[in-house]
Amino acid sequence: MSFSQAFATYGRADLVDIYNLGAFAGRMLSHNILVFASTSYEWRKNVFQSDDFPILSPNFSTHREWKASLGASYTPVTWLTYSYALNHDRIMSDTHLEPSIFHADFTLTFKPKYVEPYVKYRYGQHRVRPGEPRTTEGTFEFGFNLNFR
C-alpha cells in the first residue's frame, strides 16, 4: 500500500513565525514497516518585522530553508513506533552559515489515543536553532503530536 499527502504547518517560537509547505510519500513494505520520503520549504519571519520596532527586528530578511528526508519506521505493536530518517537541510536565503547540512534522527513514538508523546535523538551536522552555527553534538527533543482519527 502506498500513500502521499501534502501538508502546511504554522508555528511560533518566541518572536518568530514559522511557515512550512511540503509533501510526504510512504510505502508499506509489510504490515509493520514503512519507508518514506518527505520534502518541504520552510520560512521564518520576525513577528515585529517593521520600522516600528527596529530594536526587535534587526534583520528584515526572511529566513528560508529547503528540507528533505528519507527514512523508515517500524511498528512492533500498535502503541509504539520506532523510526530512523536521514535528512538534508539547505538554507535558501543569504547567510554566513554553512548552507547545506546532513543529519539523522531516531524517534520513538508512543501511540495511545489522541495524544502521541515522542522522544527524538538527532545526530550529525545540524542546527539546534535556525540562524545558529551547526553542531555535531547529539540533541534530544521531547514533544507530542495530536491525532484525531
Describe this structure in words.
The chain has strands at 2-13, 16-30, 33-46, 63-77, 80-91, 100-110, 115-124, 139-146. With 149 residues, it is an all-beta fold. The protein has an 8-stranded antiparallel β-sheet with strand order 1-2-3-4-5-6-7-8, with no helix packed on it. It is globular, with a radius of gyration of 17 Å. The two termini are 19 Å apart. The model has no long low-confidence stretch (mean pLDDT 84).
Percentage of residues assigned to helices? under 10%
Strand order of the largest sheet: 1-2-3-4-5-6-7-8
Biggest β-sheet description: 8 strands, antiparallel
Return the average pLDDT rounded to an integer: 84
**Total count of strands:** 8
Structural class: mainly beta
Q: Whole-Å distance between the termini?
A: 19 Å
Please tell me how large the radius of gyration is: 17 Å
Silhouette: globular
Task: Summarize the entry for a quick read.
The chain has no helices and 8 strands.
Task: Give the topology.
Elements: E1 2-13, E2 16-30, E3 33-46, E4 63-77, E5 80-91, E6 100-110, E7 115-124, E8 139-146
Antiparallel strand pairs: 1-2, 2-3, 3-4, 4-5, 5-6, 6-7, 7-8
Keywords:
149 residues; mainly beta; 8-stranded antiparallel sheet; 8 strands; 0% helix
